[in-house]
Amino acid sequence: MALHYRPLVETLQEEGINFQDEAKAFNNLELIASFEREPYPHQTEALIAWKKSQRRGVIVLPTAAGKTYLAQLALQSTPRSTLIIVPTIDLMHQWYAQMLAAFPDAEVGLLGGGSKDNSAILIATYQSAAIYSETLGNRYAFLIFDECHHLPSDFFRKIAEDSIAPYRLGLTATPDRGDGSHQDLDYLIGAIVYQKSPQDLSGKALADHEIIQIKVKLSAKEQEKYQEAIKIRNDFLRKNNLSLSGLDGWQNFVMISARSSEGRRAMLAHRESKEISSGTQGKLRVLAELICEHHPERILIFTNDNATVYRISESFLIPAITHQTPVKERHEILTRFRQGEYKILVTSHVLNEGVDVPEAGIAIILSGTGSTREYIQRLGRVLRKGQQEDKRAILYEVIAENTTEEKTSQRRRGEHKNQTSYKTGNRQLELLPSPPKKSFSFPKAAESSTPWVSSQESEEE
To answer: Do the beta carbons of residue 292 and residue 362 sit within 8 Å?
Structure first.
């Protein structure tokens, strides 16, 4: 497997075996950055940690913590032909613009969305990179995986497995996957070498923030309908010995409920209960109060479904973005939001990832999933400091009391705390255990005979 190229070359070199390498087709680059700014301490720490791990590994940082600039620093210190893989077309164009701005003299190209360039620095979507993984496999010495939690899927993992790239960097806010395959990141990219939570960076690289939970009660009529729907669903679950805990539980419910009219009725009841709890009038009253309280600050409103998005948009005359919004219209809405013409924006899942969202100070979650990743991503949308050094962001979580939303909230917040609470007591540089450091020069394989690591970087390592 191409993935084993680097350890194979290292072994041959350590044993003093002469060999001819006809696999690699990647090149050295001359990268001159058009601008440099002082990195945040966590960016410097993360870069050093990655270098100490032989330029392989995953860095976990919250949304708005400067992962793209960190990748630029890694590319400057590892000037080799580079493939950058991103999950969406929007992100591909964002990375393209940022790489061109950083390295105006470099050859930067795109793979995806109708583009099929052959360049020294290539930015591709996961979909396109996987399709052409065998062609790309020996051309790039450095792989950068943005939102790398996408990589372990059955199809996308081909990108890493078919590549001989000796240097690999994964970037994500939350590496965990519901199917457990995030563990495969260790061999596809490398182990987690550095990790910070929003709490770790609050008041430093990110704005100070406050998380406020507001519980609303269902009306008597809503409560009656909700309990009736839940009873229908739960009776079916008990009868069929099903549980909704975990991904398998939900998949079994979907599969078995489709086999009978009783099952379909149970599924409809489940959906009705969700609609009642997520769209209760009590939430809309709270939303109106919060909008008035924080006027004229910029506010992002998140829901779990498009129907609620459009309902809020029509009721409050607020621009909305869903996956159905045309690209040009979405761009226009975000531009006007960035310029301050629009003060409020309502959306569902489409702004969670892969879209450059203008900074806002207030986020309101009216409904969501139990996903820790979604929770962190939505929080990250208001953590960017921008020009406000004393910015204080607020995330409101509005949930329906005595409904499954309480458990959903506990799950995402509980997982979030479990993931980060052991980090918050000590906010120093954290490195996960790495193998004993080996010196390797790759004179016959991954490297040219000309040294390219600066003396300063050698000292850092």
So the answer is: no
Which DSSP state fits 88? S
- Quick: pLDDT tens for 61-100: 988 788 999 999 999 999 999 999 999 888 898 899 889 9
Q: Which CATH architecture has domain 208-218+281-421?
A: 3-Layer(aba) Sandwich (3.40)
Alpha-carbon span 150 to 155, nearest angstrom: 10
The four Cα atoms 11, 16, 19, 22 give a dihedral, to 10 degrees, of 40
Would you say 321 and 330 are in contact if contact means Cβ atoms under 8 Å apart? yes
User: Residue 88: which of 142, 126, 134 has the closest Cα?
Assistant: 126
d(CA 431, CA 207): 25
Eight-state DSSP code of residue 75:
H
pTM, two decimals, is: 0.70
Host H or E run for residue 400: strand 392-400
pLDDT digits (tens, 9 = 90+) for 31-54: 988 877 889 899 999 999 999 999
For domain 2-196+431-460, the question of CATH label 3.40.50.300 is answered with yes
Pairing of strands 299-302, 344-347: parallel
Closest CA to 387 of 361, 355, 351: 361
